[in-house]
Amino acid sequence: MSVVQKTRRGEVAIRDLSKSFALNGQRLNVLRNLDLAIKGGEALAIVGPSGCGKTTLLRVLAGLENPDQGEVLIDGQRVEGVGTERAIIFQEPRLLPWLTVLGNVSFGLQVRGHSPAEAEARARHYIRLVGLAEFETAFPRQLSGGMSQRVGIARALTVQPEILLLDEPLGALDAMTKLTMQEELARIWREEKVTMVLVTHDLEEAIFLADRVLVLPKEKGAMPRLIEVGLPRPRDRSETRFVEMRRRLMAEFGLH
Ligand SMILES: Nc1ncnc2c1ncn2[C@@H]1O[C@H](COP(=O)(O)OP(=O)(O)OP(=O)(O)O)[C@@H](O)[C@H]1O
Ligand SMILES: [Mg+2]
């Protein structure tokens, strides 16, 4: 089947972005004067200690949260609220229990006014892409955690976003499934040519998937750091340069 051609590139520009929250009558500064340019088609990982603002940054990029100051531009256009060029994937896939896999994946397109036949045809393409062709008619309760997360990924891809925002999408999976899903994500990113912004706690996952890693610090006043991964793909976790990169990233957190 023909998949709609993408006209935009999924380039993200974050300019002087600040975000704070009110907490017990005080301002809690979470993001401060952040500047970052993400290239179209780039894979960027965001890592940092719990509470440093990873989810907050992703929510601002998704348009679910307004910045206090600064702006986010997507292909030169200022982000105001959610938009169809961006899709967000959360830690738990939040599937609709009364719909089948096909129903869940095609739902977003039908809501957007596509005919059921067209929505299902496109949904089938992405269900195949995530390796669930045989489970189209299964209901969420009949799926494993990894399979549910794949449905979530297919659902996000079906609306053909230029930018895929993922908040610890593999965090709830067991170690083995996680490794497989990392391979899948690497393949999907390559095939779909989307810009991917991935929040993760897993430094190895960041190195495996990303072109660059943004390290957000917890301490106030400390500057975020960007690390270029620069390893050839497909990546091999046991390779010397991979291990070296992991050591370097761990050192960012004072770990050895
Ligand atoms: N809606 C909100 N109201 C008040 N404070 C908030 C809100 N959302 C986030 N925060 C605060 O902002 C800080 C950053 O939260 P955020 O969820 O972005 O962290 P995170 O880096 O994603 O952490 P984790 O790794 O634990 O998911 C936290 O201190 C949190 O308490
Ligand atoms: Mg978070």
Characteristic terms for this protein:
alpha/beta; binds magnesium ion; 7 helices; binds adenosine-5'-triphosphate; 34% helix; globular; six-stranded mixed β-sheet; four-stranded antiparallel β-sheet; 256 residues; 10 strands
Unreliable runs, pLDDT <50, ≥5 residues? none
Give the SSE string: EEEHEEEHHHEHEHEEH
Major β-sheet annotation: 6 strands, mixed
Number of strands: 10
Numbering strands along the chain, what is their spatial order in the largest sheet?
A: 6-7-8-3-9-10
Spatial shape: globular
The value of Rg in angstroms is 18 Å
Helix fraction, binned, reads: 25-40%
Description of the molecule:
It is a single chain. The chain has 256 residues and is α/β, with parallel strands linked by helices. It has a domain at 93-160. It is 34% helix and 23% strand. The chain is built from 7 helices and 10 strands. It has helices at 54-62, 101-111, 116-129, 145-158, 175-192, 203-209, 240-252, and strands at 12-23, 26-38, 43-47, 69-74, 77-78, 86-89, 163-167, 195-199, 212-215, 225-228. Strands 6-7-8-3-9-10 form a 6-stranded mixed beta sheet, with helices on both faces. It has a 4-stranded antiparallel beta sheet with strand order 2-1-4-5, covered by helices on one side. Bound molecules: adenosine-5'-triphosphate and magnesium ion.
